Fold these 2 entries.
Entry 1:
Amino acid sequence: MKETPREQTAMSPKQESPIRRKPRWLTRRLPSAPEYEQVRSLISKGRLHTVCEEAKCPNQFECFSRRTATFLILGSRCTRNCRFCNVAHGPTGPPDPEEPRRVAEAAERMGLRYVVVTSVTRDDLPDGGAGLFAETITEIRRRVPGALVEVLIPDFGGDATALRTVLKAHPNVLNHNIETVPRLYPTVRPKAIYERSLELLRRSAAAFPEIPTKSGIMLGLGETEAEIHDTLEDLRTAGCRFLTIGQYLQPSRDHLPVERFIPPEEFNAWREKALALGFTEAASGPFVRSSYHAKDLYQASGL
Ligand code: SF4
């Protein structure tokens, strides 16, 4: 699931939804850690963005304290306006050709051996930002020899050439989130197309089978059990090998309300079902996000 762009959504004040109180399994206290501030400082000095901060990910403290983060390239404003997502929507600037180098330097300073890179959606760019993804992969490899790189990419508007540009840089994992079940796309991801996202995964698995594909889905938006099951089957049919399943959390009153908080036992059951469907590895839990413990998921797969 995408770790949610912030700011103005297209919803009118009438569509504001009060934020529901979280159940006990979604509240936790974490000890302070000096690494948290160190990572924040590295990100800020590198003039970088992370989806962790932009999306107000609930795992930010934990991940930064473990000296890990997910880099957000191509700016901090998204050209789409998904109703679940907290990343800012609005005017975007030109891609920064120096960004790949700065990401690689930060990864090196943080001592990362597994680097996750994502971006805002850039429908305004001819290649959707694919070229900068490829350059970032190459630069990380150059600067941090032996580092594994996972990219969490947008759908590039269905542009197969853009996808190929990224794949030719040989990321270790190609991640693209399906986010929700097809029935909810018009509400949750109005500018995205369920079939187009599946097609991206299918194309990737067919053209570069050595690069495992990964996807993620949020639960709690009103989907039914049968719909979740069908979506997991669709992902498997598209050749998807890694899966993440997490709880949707409403970032603000302007975002879609949580329809249901799924208890941890149900998340465990979904992991079992995913493995039974043939996913190589799956992470499922209330705090799981597509990049949450991404290195562990990859390593657990034995690849
Ligand atoms: S789960 Fe991913 S987005 Fe959230 S804080 Fe961790 S690395 Fe960042």
Entry 2:
Amino acid sequence: MSTMETVRARRSVRTFSGEPLRAEDKQKIMAFAETADNPYHLPITWMLLDTKETGLSSPVIVGEDTFIAGKMRRVPHAEEAFGYSFERIVLFAETMGVGTTWIAGTMDRSAFEKAVALSDGEVMPCISPLGYPAAKMSVRESLMRKGVKAESRFAFADLFFDGSFDRPLRAENAGKWQTALEAVRLAPSAVNKQPWRAVVCGERVHFYEKRSKAYAGSDWDIQRIDMGIALCHFALCAEESGVPVSFLQEDPGLETPANTVYIATYIAE
Ligand SMILES: Cc1cc2nc3c(=O)[nH]c(=O)nc-3n(C[C@H](O)[C@H](O)[C@H](O)COP(=O)(O)O)c2cc1C
């Protein structure tokens, strides 16, 4: 399965079959997680949490027996780094037929933080259930998907731009960046807000976060996790489509729309 196929196949799974996650699948996921670096090279500690041993659950998830959680130092760019590395694990799980759902909100956060022994100065941004998808979604899951319009995404030209923010870029004009940008477009995001924007300037693609008003003013920016997910999809699918890229943070100083902030750049090598 190519990464692009995996990106297309993935969806949040909130109804699991009830079959416990097999030991060999746990082992493969944890072995992969150890290698799931991010462009900021920030280390993250991954843990599997057994629901029977810990009593942990999420009100939106049914039939799961295992969660994965990650914790890290609360430092600049922790959000993007976490988003990037966790999405790599999510995509890896998908290739194994293991379903996931990014969860930042719908959990008893203090119970999960206790279970991972979170210390001062650390954050546990998100968790996910890990398990085998049930044949049929629960009614609650179907309603939740409708509530956030989980099946839909913004159009390519609403998200991506050619040289400056006043020139929308259509997929057919995106050249070698088309596949990687399409993978960004399809990414999961908190409440499906899709905050990623990108401006293509020749060999460089500059990524921006369009912050939703609802999240403004917080020192912990959940939409930067979404940005990390977007960077992950972009880098993996660019490489796969024959365009190796390198990462840098160097604001090109473009004029930006309101509430739109520079995050990072990828350059074709
Ligand atoms: C950072 C982040 C946090 C999320 N938090 C939650 C959550 O707390 N509860 C939940 O049910 N879904 C959560 N989601 C899942 C999104 O609602 C979902 O990805 C989005 O609606 C798109 O649907 P899809 O993943 O099926 O493509 C989160 C997603 C992301 C990326």
